[in-house]
Automatic annotation (TrEMBL):
Origin superkingdom: Bacteria
Sequence ranges assigned to domain HTH hxlR-type in this UniProt record: 22-120
Organism: Streptomyces rochei (Streptomyces parvullus)
Keyword Nucleus appears in the UniProt entry: no
UniProt KW Transcription regulation keyword: yes
Coiled coil: none
InterPro entries recorded: ArsR-like_HTH, HTH_HxlR, WH-like_DNA-bd_sf, WH_DNA-bd_sf
Protein name: Helix-turn-helix domain-containing protein
Pfam families associated with the record: HxlR
C-alpha cells in the first residue's frame, strides 16, 4: 500500500522505494547540515569550549555555531556545561547518544576519502559535458 512502511518515519511508494519523512527527516537534516556532523566529530575527540570549536571549524560564524550547538543539545547529542571559574566558561561535550554517531560518521568520512578521486573524475567529465552544452 502506498505511503506505508513498517518503519516509523519511512514512507514507501508503490514501487517499494523508501523516503524519510517527518521528524526523522528533520533530525537527519540537522545531523548532516553544514556544521552538525563536523561539531559531533570534534566533540567525539574531546570536550571543547565554544571558541575552540569556532577556531577549529574554519568559516563558521558565531551565530551558526550557536544555532548548531543548540540543535545538537536539544536533540540530546551534546551537553553544555558551565565551568565555574573566572571568567565563567562554557564547555561542550558529546553525550552517550551522540557518541553512537561516531561509527556511522567515521564510515561516511572513510567513504569520501576512498571514493573522492572517482567522484572528482565524474565531476570533471560532467563539467566538460556541461561546457559543450552552453
Amino acid at each position: 500500500m502506498e505511503g506505508t512502511s513498517k518503519k516509523p518515519g519511512i514512507r514507501e511508494d508503490r514501487a517499494g522505494h523508501e523516503t524519510i519523512v517527518g521528524p526523522q527527516r528533520e533530525l537527519l537534516d540537522q545531523l548532516l547540515d553544514k556544521w552538525g556532523h563536523l561539531l559531533l566529530a570534534a566533540l567525539c575527540r574531546q570536550p571543547r569550549r565554544f571558541n575552540e570549536l569556532k577556531r577549529e571549524l574554519d568559516g563558521v560564524t558565531q551565530k551558526s555555531l550557536t544555532q548548531a550547538l543548540r540543535r545538537l543539545e536539544r536533540n540530546g547529542l551534546v551537553e553544555r556545561r558551565v565551568l565555574m571559574q573566572r571568567p565563567v566558561a562554557v564547555e561542550y561535550r558529546i553525550t552517550p547518544l551522540g557518541r553512537t554517531l561516531e561509527e556511522p560518521f567515521s564510515i561516511l568520512r572513510s567513504w569520501t576519502a576512498d571514493h573522492l578521486p572517482e567522484v572528482e573524475r565524474h565531476r570533471e567529465a560532467f563539467d566538460k559535458g556541461a561546457d559543450t552544452l552552453h
